[in-house]
Amino acid sequence: MPLNIDLHTHSFFSADGISSPEDMIAAARAKGLSGIAITDHNTCDAVNYLLEKGLMRLDGMPINDFLVLPGVEVTTADGHLLCIGAELPYLKGKPAREVCDITHQRGGLAIPPHPYDLFRAGIRLGTLETLPIDAIEVFNAATTLRRYNRYAFKYAQIRGLPMTAASDAHHAAAVGTAYTIVNTDDFSVKGILAQIVKSNELNQKYQTPRDSLRKTWNNWLRLRRRRKIPELAAKDRSHNGP
């Protein structure tokens, strides 16, 4: 059966995200998605948050016909790397090859997002050629220039890599702008991962200018927001000390 999954989203656990994981899920449900991967920047904090709220299961099964996949977007030494289906430690600044290896050891998939986007820390071609990646994001709804998606698509074709599409949403309204259509009867994290590395259909739609502007505005306000969100304020205090 076809399952519509947005494999690249950010909640307020990302410094530049604004929406709660609950709001991201609600928005995805409203748009008819079957699931999302929450891939916050350099943190898997959303996993424990959702487990505590009963919106995610440790066994990787859906809740009320909706699946949340664990994930993280790691800022590696070589650029951004989506790690889907595994909960990872803090790996910011590690070489991309090392992050790929750790992701695989934990049963996840390594998927470079927006690899050709010169303005958004995409992993460059010279490094991509050396990485044991499982798929590649060929359509990012928030890409800076549309030709970067075309470049990624051509690279995937040349290398024979499975392709994914995703919203890269940083607020709930943008969730599901683009998504990957995964055709499998195994509606679980394990089943989704197994199908992604085979072949997928892509729903390709760009974020609106309003969505892009909102993301920029979110970046300006992120520090103020973190002070207002109890979970994040407590995290900042624990990192920075008294």
What does this 3D model show about the protein?
By secondary structure, this protein is of the alpha/beta class. The protein has a single domain (2-240), classed as Alpha-Beta Barrel (TIM Barrel), CATH 3.20.20. Helix content is 35%, strand content 20%. It has helices spanning 21-30, 45-52, 96-105, 125-128, 146-159, 189-196, 209-228, 230-240; strands at residues 2-9, 35-38, 67-76, 79-84, 109-111, 136-140, 163-166, 179-183, 201-203. Strands 5-4-3-2-1-8-9 form a 7-stranded mixed β-sheet, with helices on both faces. A two-stranded parallel ribbon has the order 6-7. Strand 3 and strand 4 (79-84) form a beta hairpin. The longest helix is centred in the last third of the chain and has 20 residues, at 209-228. The protein is globular. It starts with a strand and ends with a helix. The mean pLDDT is 90.
Topology (elements, then pairings):
Elements: E1 2-9, H1 21-30, E2 35-38, H2 45-52, E3 67-76, E4 79-84, H3 96-105, E5 109-111, H4 125-128, E6 136-140, H5 146-159, E7 163-166, E8 179-183, H6 189-196, E9 201-203, H7 209-228, H8 230-240
Parallel strand pairs: 1-2, 2-3, 6-7
Antiparallel strand pairs: 1-8, 3-4, 4-5, 8-9
